[in-house]
Amino acid sequence: MEKKYMAEPYKIKMVEPIAVTTRAQREEAIKRAGYNTFLLDSDDVYIDLLTDSGTNAMSDNQWAGMMLGDEAYAGSKNFKNLKKAVQDLFGFKHVIPTHQGRGAENILSQVMIKQGDFVPGNMYFTTTRAHQELNGATFRDIIIDEAHDSTLELPFKGDVDLNKLQALIDEVGSERIPYICLAITVNLAGGQPVSMANMCAVYEMAQKHGIKVMMDATRCVENACFIKQREAGYGDKTIREILRETFSYADGCTMSGKKDGIVNIGGFLALNDDELYQKSTALVVVYEGMPSYGGLAGRDMEAMARGLYESVDYNYISHRLAQVRYLGEKLDAAGIPIVKPIGGHAIFLDARRFYPHIPQDHFPAQTLAAELYLKSGVRSMERGIVSAGRNKEGQHHYPKLELVRLTIPRRVYTYSHLEVVADSVIDLYQERETAKGLRFVYEAPVLRFFTARFEPLG
Ligand code: PLI
Predict the structure, then answer these.
(1) 259 catalytic per annotation
(2) What pLDDT, on the 0 to 100 scale, is given for residue 458?
(3) Which of 116, 164, 359, 387 is the most buried (most CB within 10 A)?
(4) Does domain 23-52+314-456 have CATH number 3.90.1150.10?
């Protein structure tokens, strides 16, 4: 019999009850949260698709590893295991654990950026750009134009536009570009992958100009799986082989283990250059901890080492992508505007097309996230104008993409949960004219989306 969808390549050994709430309870909860899904208590959430970050279900093997935590202040054996896993799977020489991805971004930005520098990247990510800017750099988006159009179906919509990269080099000079930040996959473009051919071309151009390439490896296993499934010549390669080739086109990477490392906390900075590594170890002791634990317990490093090995199993990663695709195809079949093609970690609803009557400065995506919670207790995340923040002059950045992210945690929800999500989005779409938008009540100066509060318009 032909399979309608790929069933889970794991079985459930432990369950966690989740809250079933009434509409009246949700109305209270979202009001208390200032119409910001980040500020909801998880006790009030039924299906939590806020993020795939740190929300993963670990395996029995990872939990067993947690019991083998060597909680030494220095030289923990779990650090050795983590280092070996990263060297083996990614191929970098040096590994510095950090408490999560942004800990690695902080160190990398501090050791590499000088005031007045430019850091080109394939679309911004919130924390990554914040660290670059805090260290005096200007971020330049060099992703292909098509990535900003949610309707275009391209297999590698995360690719860099080499002409944009060359134009920046010509404009500011290579000496003011400490590194290119290459994200694989591109979160805010919809979880879109970067092709191997593009990574190779970026690296060649960078080398020619003496510029380093630092990858944001946060979802590199999903990227590798897309390459296997979509790029000519890679169908017969293993995920491990694809990863090793991927990182042969980089001088280092930052990693949030909370995504493709399949853990709840942890990250690392990996580098080839000895001098950069020395400088980074001097900073890690200030911000994180000893270079052999970097803000993590021994048990957390062990869980990440084991999670990384599990992540490269094709059954695991192809099921993950299949689950995300299942939700996306359901919504697409019902005519819901979503970012195409379906990405790696999430389905992104296009709030501009969902609520065309709500102008961007009335926060259509924020509104949609609040409405979805009210409808069914499903928590999602705004990834639009609120997440984009303000420029140096204090004006809103107006991103082309005004999205709501339905992010699928790894190994946590079943296809039935995804059915509930699809049904509630479809119901909301049918009553879309009734939505009115929001206005700010409070916003923080940096990374405002985390703590902003709103009230309904009208
Ligand atoms: O949340 P961290 O500090 O472990 O990682 C920061 C980070 C860096 N790069 C990318 C592409 C991310 O997606 C990322 C974190 N993402 C979050 C929290 C998310 O919800 O997507």
Answers:
(1) yes
(2) 81
(3) 387
(4) yes
216 catalytic? Reply is: yes
The CA 128 to ligand 1 mean position distance, Å, reads: 8
Say what the pLDDT of residue 392 is: 83
Task: State the average pLDDT for the chain.
Answer: 96
Burial class (CB in 10 A: 0-12, 13-18, 19+), 329: middle
**Which pLDDT tens digit goes with each residue over 117-174?**
999 999 999 999 999 999 999 999 999 999 999 899 999 999 999 999 999 999 999 9
Ligand 1: nearest atom to the Cα of 185:
11
**Could you tell me whether strands 346-350 and 403-407 are parallel, antiparallel, or unpaired per DSSP bridges?**
antiparallel
Active site residue 383: yes
Model pLDDT for residues 74-84, shown as the tens digit of each residue = 999 999 999 99
Give alpha helix (H) positions in 288-414.
298-311, 314-333, 351-354, 364-376, 385-388
Instruction: Please tell me the distance between residue 81's alpha carbon and the centre of ligand 1 in angstroms.
Output: 24
Structure-token pair, residue 72: 């030494």
What is this structure's pTM? 0.95
Residues pairing with 346 in the sheet: 407
pLDDT in tens, 417-434: 999 999 999 999 999 999
Domain boundaries, the chain: 23-52+314-456, 62-311
Please tell me the distance from the alpha carbon of residue 289 to that of residue 97, in angstroms, as a whole number: 9
Contacts of 339 (CB under 8 A, 6+ apart): 150, 189, 190, 347, 348, 350, 401, 403
* CA 218/CA 181 separation, integer angstroms: 12
Place of tokens 């039935």: 416
**Both tokens assigned to 438:** 């929001």
Give the pLDDT confidence score for residue 407 in this predicted structure. Answer: 98
Q: Ligand 1 pocket: which of 38, 259, 262, 324 to mutate (most atoms <8 Å of CB)?
A: 259
Mind listing the pLDDT tens digit for each residue in 92-106? 999 999 999 999 999
